[in-house]
Amino acid sequence: MNVGTNGIVVDQHGAVLLIKRNDTRTFAPPGGALDVGELPPDGTAREVKEETGLIVLPVRLVTLTYLPMKPHGYLMFSFRCLLRGGEITTSEESPVVGFFKSKPLPRRITSFHRERLEAGLTHAEERPLTFTHPITPVTKLSYFLLRQVVYRWMDVKRRLKGEATYQPPPNWDVTTYLLCPNEDGAYLWYRPQKNDAWQLPGGGTSGLNAPWETAVQLAKQQPGHTLQLGHLSNVYSHQNKNQLTLVFMAECASPLPEPSATIGWFVSGSEPVTCHPEQCQIVANAGQVNQAAEFRFFK
């Protein structure tokens, strides 16, 4: 899966920071692909600096969105940012940089960038919005032209200049787990067979479904119970691997599943030794999470 970030920066007059992309010639919030060994807030600050010359501090995740475009799909973190310094500077990727009126936004902007911006500019809650962008025929055609025509032509020009050709961003393995607590503060675990290791509900992505949709579908097959998706609580990454883990709070439909050989309710710190250490770490941090999503490296 492709993973990227956007920075939403507003000045004292309510204008929003936008760039004009050199590939699509459309306006967009500054952002780009997440690097391996980088957390989304850090990737946001880096991309804004590279594309605009401005130094920003990402302070709040406002949207987590998914674009189900073949072959891997696009997961995007959009942050509201505070302006800390720097001077507006254009780059090869962003020949136009500036603050533009947010009402209305410029006409030349893709539908998914517009949706992220409009949601991010108006969303005031600590918990981020989570949604999937619809794929329209125009989106498919634009993506085809971008990959098959624009990028190839840009590579030709780079070769003529003796420059390196376009390198696609890293493909990430994205896993989503659901934390379902009961009234006693214990969390739901399951295992496929009696002698297997205990696991949290959820798992890796499948096809072009959004990661959180896949987790809910897997939960129906795993503990065999319907879980209602709640808010994003934590995002984990590794410092040397392109693996990302999303953690959502969830609620069980009544009645709660009873403990059995394959279903368990364990309080943090009292999990069986067969529980995966990283998943135990996820549960241990759950009690420390407020409404805003937190970003961490696995220890």
TrEMBL record:
Keyword Hydrolase: yes
SUPFAM superfamilies xref list: Nudix
Nudix hydrolase domain ranges (all copies): 1-122
Lineage per the UniProt record: unclassified sequences, metagenomes, ecological metagenomes
Species name: hydrothermal vent metagenome
GO molecular function, one term: hydrolase activity
Protein name: Nudix hydrolase domain-containing protein
UniProt-listed InterPro entries: NUDIX_hydrolase-like_dom_sf, NUDIX_hydrolase_dom
Keyword set, alphabetical order: Hydrolase
Cofactor(s) required for function per UniProt: Mg(2+)
